[in-house]
């Protein structure tokens, strides 16, 4: 759980930063979105394997790998969210004399937040599911039970790992869905 939490926090910080950069700085849009799209198609186990020779094994290399997996959906949705804000709303804010910072804080961010949150929700499920695979690089977690169950042909360990990660993913999805509905209600 700590593995997923640290990776998600880092992915949110980096993904929103990159997505905001892509949305507001036209020359950055192409490279950021291209890198994010490439990142989305690389399988989770491949990312974990790429990190292994560079950072070694353990908890923090797994956090780095999971962060890399979480960044693309957040960056893409942040870009979409900010670019989806109606130009009329921005023009109206300018007409009212708002500064660029006030427009970002009071107009763009609240209107883009539901779309950004959808990216965070996708990244959360991706990270929780992939954290199971992090046991392959010695990060521990529920994946250890699955590996131990496979190695010893012991279904009890397999069930503990599989049920544990499933419950964690379902609880995270339910909480995020509830939060997403509240955000969409507030944005209207």
Give a structural overview.
It is a single chain. With 188 residues, this protein is mainly alpha-helical. Helices cover 86% and strands 0% of the residues. The chain is built from 8 helices and no strands. The longest helix is centred in the C-terminal third of the chain and has 33 residues, at 155-187. The two termini are 34 Å apart.
List the helices and strands and how they pair.
Layout: H1 2-24, H2 26-41, H3 44-55, H4 59-83, H5 87-95, H6 100-131, H7 142-152, H8 155-187
Structural class: mainly alpha
- Please count the helical segments: 8
Rounded to an integer, what's the Rg over CA atoms?
19 Å
> Largest beta sheet, briefly?
none
Summarize the structure.
The protein has 188 residues and is mostly helical.
Keywords:
8 helices; 188 residues; mainly alpha
């Amino acid at each position: 759980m700590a593995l997923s939490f640290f990776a998600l926090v880092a992915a949110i910080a980096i993904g929103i930063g990159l997505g905001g950069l892509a949305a507001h700085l036209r020359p950055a849009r192409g490279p950021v979105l291209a890198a994010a799209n490439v990142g989305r198609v690389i399988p989770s186990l491949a990312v974990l394997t790429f990190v292994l020779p560079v950072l070694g094994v353990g908890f923090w290399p797994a956090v780095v790998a999971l962060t890399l997996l979480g960044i693309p959906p957040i960056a893409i949705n942040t870009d979409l969210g900010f670019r989806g804000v109606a130009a009329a709303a921005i023009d109206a804010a300018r007409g009212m004399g708002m500064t660029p910072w006030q427009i970002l804080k009071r107009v763009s961010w609240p209107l883009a937040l539901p779309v950004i949150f959808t990216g965070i929700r996708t990244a959360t499920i991706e990270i929780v599911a992939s954290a199971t695979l992090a046991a392959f690089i010695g990060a521990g977690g529920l994946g250890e039970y699955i590996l131990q169950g496979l190695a010893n042909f012991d279904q009890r360990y397999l069930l503990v790992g599989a049920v544990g990660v499933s419950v964690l993913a379902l609880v995270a999805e339910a909480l995020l869905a509830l939060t997403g509905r509240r955000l969409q209600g507030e944005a209207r």
